[in-house]
Amino acid sequence: MDDLYREVIIEHYKNPAYKGHLDPHDYAFEDSNPLCGDHIEITLRVDGNGNVAEAAFDGHGCAISQASADLLIESIIGKPVEDIKSFNRQHVLDLLGIELGPVRLKCALLSLKVLKGGLYGLGDTLEEA
Amino acid sequence: MTINVSEIRAQFPILQREVRPGVPLVYLDSTATAQKPLAVIAAMDDFYRRSNANIHRGVHTLAEESTALYEDARAKIAGFLHAASPRQVIYTRNTTESINLVAYSWARATLKAGDLVILTEMEHHSNLVPWQILQAERGIRLEFVPVTENGLLDLEVYRQLLAQSPKLVAFTHMSNVLGTINPAAEMIRLAHQAGAVTLLDGAQSVPHFAVDVQALDVDFLAFSAHKMVGPTGIGVLYGKRELLEAMPPFLGGGDMIREVHLRSFKPNALPYKFEAGTPAIAEAVGFGAAVDYLTGIGMEAIAAHEHAITEYALERLEEIPGVKVFGPEASHKGGVAAFTLDCAHPHDVAQILDQDGVAVRAGHHCAQPLHEKFNIPATTRASFYLYSTKDEVDKLVDGIYKVKQYFG
Ligand SMILES: Cc1ncc(COP(=O)(O)O)c(C=O)c1O
After folding, report:
1. Do B52 and B129 share a domain, yes or no?
2. Cα B287–chain centre separation
3. In angstroms, what CA-CA distances link A74 with A17, A41, B370?
4. Which of A11, A84, B151, B257 has its CA 20 to 30 A from that of B288?
5. Last residue of a domain, one of B296, B331, B359
6. Which protein residues touch ligand 1 with a CB less than 6 Å away?
């Protein structure tokens, strides 16, 4: 267990650095996991060079979904939007540093699904992720 | 009346297993599905080894045997429910299909635009969605008996709704989240006075306490074998004879017909009219064995045992700071404890409990509107059955303290 609830996950869950809502923003996306009710909203500001200047997430859910959102946001700040479009599930799993079964994988990947869905203007990109 | 829990546990092979080396299973998810005793497993195994054949077709020995076993099980179930006749016991796949059978056959033949159907706010999705589909298709009206803060149905509002001449009142006998045992006999009596037909979702009641369809005077009762120590894939719709006789068939095909011509058919008699195609035969045999098993122990004794465990669980859970248990006090409640913990999400609670072998469910338990009502996305649910012990409740409580160490 101790793996699944590594300190870094509990820490990002309890004290997220990027929780909030940016206003104004250039992009806003949201989605939820109907099975467990986890909900994530992501807002972004992009600078003139197409890099993410600022980003934040809001929402509620289990430690895995919320910590992965905080870690994901941290990892995209300063990055070109075009690069972020190619982030995949391994990127999120590397951030979390844990192995997950199929049920919890959905929790972990919700923020990536929201982010990519928004950037691509698509509803559901989980399959490609 | 008491039961010997260690003797009972010895009858359930799965309860002997370890989830991981050195970590025994603490199964607290019987509301989702119950574990199976040897008697049920053996009956199905024996059926496949000795008697397997299709039923109602053919005169060879095996066909005779399997047909007799399939019908014996039906008779046992009828006896278990105190039904007047086994013909009123229709095999379905599960509670959900039983409710849909009423919605597709009885309701589509009976209800017109504007007709009122009364449901409650504590229904499982399986007693909501079929009626929502019918609402979209037919324009029937749906009203809901509210759930009070302490998890009971608001019977005052129920009486007011009955004054609007509903055609159907469909409600759960026992909530799979709050554990609330609703006053079914009284609610059915009032519904009949108002001229309504009644449908009782017995998914959680039939497995846990004695249900007498004639004493309740209920028109339809739906339940599943898998929640009462029987197999998955089979359930029952009980119905009053006049209603079932008058209803059009639901699914068409083999077995449900008396005669078929190229352009017409005559439906079979009850209960076969509603049993199209080859049914779950081995499962019916297992279902019969489950009924025998529960009857052998006694439903009163089972209910008393679960009540004692539930009382103990509520007491222990409520002493944990940050835990909030939903639903009424033990006197109005079956063996279900759904709770929230202030510092952790139900998913995380369930995951950490699983590390100690404690199997609970996290989510909205197919009762999303009820969770919306209480303004929570999800709960963690522990549920109890005849094989549950106080020791298992203690393990649950220890696990919750462990969660608090992580998140507190
Ligand atoms: C109250 C209630 N109704 C209906 C159902 C649906 O049962 P099944 O999935 O066997 O159709 C359940 C099972 O979760 C239940 O608890």
Report:
1. yes
2. 14
3. 8, 15, 36
4. B257
5. B296
6. B 94-96, 124, 126, 172, 176, 201, 203-204, 224, 366
CATH number at residue B141: 3.40.640.10
| Distances from the Cα of B290 to the Cα of B36, B196, B205, angstroms | 8, 33, 15
Rg (CA), chain A: 14
Question: B157-179: per-residue pLDDT in tens?
Answer: 999 999 999 999 999 999 999 99
DSSP per residue over chain A, as a string?
Answer: -TTTT-HHHHHHHHS-SSBS--SS-SEEEEEEETTTTEEEEEEEEE-TTSBEEEEEEEEE--HHHHHHHHHHHHHHTTSBHHHHTT--HHHHHHHHT----HHHHHHHHHHHHHHHHHHHT-S--TTT-
Q: Note whether B267 contacts A: Cβ–Cβ < 8 A.
A: no
Sign of the Cα pseudo-torsion (B225, B301, B28, B216, in order): positive
Quick one: pLDDT at residue A56?
Answer: 97
Please give the Cα distance from B3 to B341 (Å, whole number): 33
Q: CATH number for the domain including A65?
A: 3.90.1010.10
Tell me whether the omega of the peptide bond preceding residue B24 falls within 30 degrees of 0, making it cis.
no
- Of the residues B254, B366, B368, B369, which is catalytic? B366
Q: Where is the domain boundary, B296, B323, B341?
A: B296
- Is residue B66 a contact partner of residue B58, using CB atoms and an 8 Å limit? no
The distance from CA A29 to its chain's CA centroid, rounded to whole angstroms, is 11
**Judgement on whether residues B57 and B132 belong to the same structural domain of the protein:** yes
Question: Is B396 within a domain?
Answer: yes
CA of B203 to the centre of ligand 1 (A): 5
Say if residues B235 and B93 touch (Cβ distance below 8 Å). Answer: yes
pLDDT, tens only, A32-79: 887 777 899 999 999 999 999 999 999 999 999 999 999 999 999 999
Closest Cα in chain B to A38: B377
The closest alpha carbon to A81, from A42, A110, A49, belongs to: A49
In the annotation, is B366 catalytic? yes
- What is the distance between the alpha carbons of residues B215 and A100, in angstroms, rounded to a whole number? 51
Query: pLDDT, tens digit, for every residue of B218-248?
Result: 999 999 999 999 999 999 999 999 999 999 9
* Interface predicted TM-score (ipTM): 0.82
Does a structural domain hold residue B144? yes
* Model confidence, pTM: 0.93
- B310 and B279 fall within a common domain: no
Question: Cα of B187 to ligand 1 centre, how many Å?
Answer: 21
Q: Are B336 and B216 in a shared domain?
A: no
Q: Are residues B115 and B216 in the same domain?
A: yes
Both tokens assigned to B243: 């209603």
By residue range, what is the domain housing residue B379? 299-407
